[in-house]
Amino acid sequence: MEALLPSGGQTEKTNIFLKDPTDLMTNMYGDTLVTTNGEEACLLRLSLTSLFTETSLQSTKEYIFSVCEQRLNDLSLRGQSECVYSVFKRLGTELVLGLFLNLRAEEQPELFQEVVQLCTQHWHGLISAPVNLKVPLWSSGFSTALEARDRLMDIIKEKLENDTGGFPATLASLPLPDSSAAAQHLLLFISALIPKALASLLTSFTLVLSADEQAETRRRATEDPDFLHAVLLELQRLWPPFIGGRRIAEQDITLAGFDVPKGYGAIFISHSIHRDPEVFQQPDSFLPERWSGRNAGQENFLCSFGNGARSCIGTKLTDVFLKEACVFLLKRYDWRLDPSSQDLTYKWLPVSRPANPPTVSFTQVDRSVSDGGNAMDARHAV
């Protein structure tokens, strides 16, 4: 049975609600930071935190920019509108595999494509029925996902054994509880979860800023890093990439007036929490300014990537990914929906995005042109 966690859930009771040890994530990823509980989870987080320090994140920016340059630099030159979700998912995939696995598409194209396909098959196992069945000429999605996981683990273990630099080498050097922990966490880090989350948020970013009336918002986001941060907070509030989560009560507890017996599940729905009118005035409106006004300092109310002691360890890295990609787009392009009338109704599973893939046309912005010493924008559609 499940109890729906109200939007004002008491964070001090977080430790009473645990990850379900029978969760499908455990079958697909093994014992990792997101599937364990208690002291084991705390020790894993302590060990892995060193991978995501400010110094480590700063060193990734050059690579992130180079991938943006390769994948986003010709959006206005292709002569057609772009399915932005697909463009951004490819961008996220290259970022993740390059940073976490030292695998570059231009250096090892065949292995890169194999890993991309395997990650996709592995991901589909998360959203399929957990039935491990094979008959002649047919395998269940879950069975195919397990086979993909095994092949990915072989590739990962080879990387951990042979790479002398980058993320795999650093991960292999950490004091983890057993020999399989590094490989299982690397499998988690390169999974399709991260590219899909990035693609979801970047798609929402281009859609909400595509209207002519958002020209001033685009200008401010280009010039003011604090305002861009507020824009990204508002994106996560309105269109969180993941629908929410589920926890199991390890003891009888009363939560916001609801009795939750031991062993029962509590579900939190990000979309509902983020649109609580008692916290966010005009909850359905895109208002980045709220984060410097009434909701200043309330970022902890968002649970796009979890919250509290069990929040995503890579949240800061995701923030770096998003800001670098958004700044790249803002400085180089204006854009609009093409065609202008599209059904942008969102679906929320497996990640949030319009059910009908939206298409966008990009117009290059050339800020290198000047007139009488004063910089000006010369925009030209290609």
TrEMBL record:
SUPFAM superfamilies: Cytochrome P450 (SSF48264). Keywords: Heme, Iron, Metal-binding, Monooxygenase, Oxidoreductase. The keyword Metal-binding applies. GO terms for molecular function: heme binding; iron ion binding; monooxygenase activity; oxidoreductase activity, acting on paired donors, with incorporation or reduction of molecular oxygen. InterPro entries: Cyt_P450, Cyt_P450_B, Cyt_P450_CS, Cyt_P450_sf. GO terms for biological process: sterol metabolic process. It comes from the Eukaryota. Belongs to the cytochrome P450 family. PANTHER family: CYTOCHROME P450 26, CYTOCHROME P450 26B1. This is Cytochrome P450 26B1-like. The lineage of its organism: Eukaryota, Metazoa, Chordata, Craniata, Vertebrata.
